[in-house]
Amino acid sequence: MNSRLVVFSAIAILAVAGSVKSASHYKFPVERESVLTGTPREDLNYRLPNNTIPSHYDIVLTTRVDEGIREFTGVVTIDVTVVEETNSFVLNARQLKFDKATVQSGSESPEELKIVYDEQREFLILTRKVEAPFAKDSKLKLNVTYNGVLRNDNAGFYMTTYTDVNGSERPLAATQFESTNARHAFPCYDDPGKRATFKITINHSPTYTAISNMPVYETETTSGKTVFETTVNMPTYIVAFIVSDFKYSEGELNGLKQRVYSRPGSEDEQEWGLLSGMLITQRLAEYFDIDFMLPKLDQAAIPNKGGAMENYGLATYGEQYMLYNRDLSTVNTQTAIANIIGHEIGHQWFGDYVTIQWWTYLWLKEGFAQLFSYKATDDAFPEWGIWQQFQTDEYQAALTSDASDKPRPMTHYVQTAAEISSLYDDVSYAKAGSVLHMWNHALTDAVFKRGLHNYLDANKFTSAVEDDLFNALQIAAKEENHPIPARIEDMLRSWTQQGGYPVLTVSRNYDDGSFTVAQQSFHNNENTKSDKLWYIPINYASQSNADFRNTAASDFLLNVSSIKVDAKLSKDDWLILNKQSTGFYRINYDDKNWKLIVEGLHDKPYKVHPLNRAQLMHDAYRFSISNRLQHSTLLEMLPYLVEEDQYAPWATAKGIFDTFHRFLIDHSNYEYFQRYLAYIVEPVYEKFGVHEDSGEQHYHKFTRNIIIHLAWMADVKTCQQEVRKKFEAELNNVVAIEPNLRSQFYCLALKDATSTEFNYVFDKLMNTNDQALRNSFISSLGCAENAEQLNKFFSSSIDTGNKLRSPERLTILSAAYSRSQAGLYAAIEFLNNNWQAYGELAIGSNKPLDAAIRGMSSYVVKSDQELKLLELVDKVKESAYVNSDLETVVKSRIQDNYNWLKANRDPIMSWMLNFRNSGSASLTLSFVSLASALVIVVFRLF
């Protein structure tokens, strides 16, 4: 029986070395396609010729997936128009066997075509057996009968399984076509710019059901045969179908029917995804002023899937990003579901309604989807404050990853499947989203909103390039009567067509109150130079005018190296540029202004916006380790955190402290770092405690875990005692740890756990079907530091007879080697003994052995670790399980770590020694005095 949730319209008003990353509770999972082609040849053109174009596909598929049979058959008929005179048709195909191909003109008899397959370029070339070409403007029907095999790597048309409530394994078939995998299910023009309509028919067992982009066409559908209504004009990569025994919940909001599908037995976990989907769809339709354009919108939770996919009218998700259990799931899961739904439903407009002309412009859909995953979620759940997460997970991540010596631009031409796949990175997602976020604020939301409406409306059901967006925003600025200092296309192209981003250097004139802003390209390596210039929007706040609300640009650097701003600032005021950190750049100040900022944070931190508080630390860290700023500025700034309770600043601080811990732990005076950290975190730990409070702010639950993690790192005894106490209480069935604290407490308790305690969590991993819980158990088990326990954990990855799911096996090593030196040593030892078995875990074209060794190299900080890892590299480097540049990359990353140690460890430890001997004592005394005064006040009040 399908459960049903009816929702009325009224609900719409409700509710690497030297790098430092924020404490992200989850990162949006980019599901790269599985690329199966060989090494590209530079002399070949991998783009389809443009002499014919499709207008309609009629696809008939037959599958017996319910029996676990991977073979399927297909017939595709494509209506094509000849654009240039030709006697051949070139389509894309992958891993298919072809029985017959014909072409038909009007009512004439079908003509059989010669079939040639170019495996290198994945071209299916269908040629007339006579010499006569088809004339320009001919309307023809291509027909190809073929067969294929459902893949096992979650790409193309694939089969996966789940374990049902009775413990039996159940198969299902699903699709993941982006970006070049539709060609695995049917021969096609697999190009995002070649849109067409699709009529899909699927023959399957009567015990299974089929769903696709459009509603079922009831007139032609019979038992075991599902026919779907013809789609709107769309590209191949967002075609989708699922053949399964899934159950669904459904709802309706403002006339749009939505359903959530998942495996039987999980219906009770569909409600949050359904509610979020309905609210977010409505919010996006309102923002774009364009109603959702299909008659229905389904979302499906797919077992063993990583990430999500925006198929038009049928978005698909890994189970952990759709299923929410009220009693067991965490606020992390709840937030992730809403956020990722925002991303995929955002794509229904950006990517589906308007497609990109070619993968060169991948950012033009992914950047918008990433931005609107937050914008739509914030509109639907404004009480959360999700922009703090955008700051840490997108903005800071992009600033960190986009600072190499040769960063690629957002707009970047590619041809091959492998090149296309390489674009699915932080540039296309996090950076593009951050750049769009910057211009959203700089131009004002009114201009941005109208510009997006213009863009979507002008290009609906077609394909676009970046100039279409720029023109739409230009028109919007005129329509809103908003003055702009230069052409939109010039300003935005400076961000889309050159890689990297600027650092602004601010120099104040303390006599006349003005300041100068100079720009140059920022790179992690301070010796890397570039003559790049950007059009940069700026604004600022000061101590006497600490209003961070208006984020529109007040000034611009218009492709010039510097400007002077006559601000009339008081010489004693701090100055902070980039209100709410919406501008995608770093800012370095003169020494005096940094001093004023640090003093201001210690005195009245609340006067500075929390997003700016986070970014000040993030910038100061990066500047201090690249010889642009004294370490003392950052180290003197961080103790302000004693008064901090917001997520973004604490998540940023966690990234910094984790990096310090990793590089300093072997120092003979590591305890100085612990005392410094304890001075900062212990008072905050006492405030947050280890128990959740009912009604507390959404991100407080995230922040508490950070505080507990840092208190343990700082050797705060009360924290360690309370963690052990709560863990043992659960172990003894006294009281369970709250879901939001479970992963953190398991992690800390397992650092020195008994075999019984370790097995308790290990058994939980093996015996739950909840994917989000499984991921958290893997993360916690990676915290173990006992060699025997770690070996058991690692060995489970290659034991194909246990209950681990294929994608999970590839996350086990990193859960440990990224956590501790014990985990790193154990991971190297495990691969030394089992590298071939681990290499065999490959799914599709990935190389898990190669990825694991590269990952481990980022955590090598001393010579014996280097020796052991390089011995492993030497053992495997000639095998097919690793790439040819493995040794070079590993050595480079290790050297980067050594460079960090050489440049930063001694000055940091010297400062902390001085803090221990002088600073902490005086500061502690002042806090003791303050605490005493508060006790007196409280006593008098009561």
From TrEMBL:
It is a lipid-anchor; GPI-anchor. Binds 1 zinc ion per subunit. Pfam families: ERAP1_C, Peptidase_M1, Peptidase_M1_N. This is Aminopeptidase. It comes from Musca domestica (House fly). It comes from the Eukaryota. Residues 54-238 form the Aminopeptidase N-like N-terminal domain. Zn(2+) binds at residues 343, 347, 366. The gene is LOC101891219. The keyword Transmembrane applies.
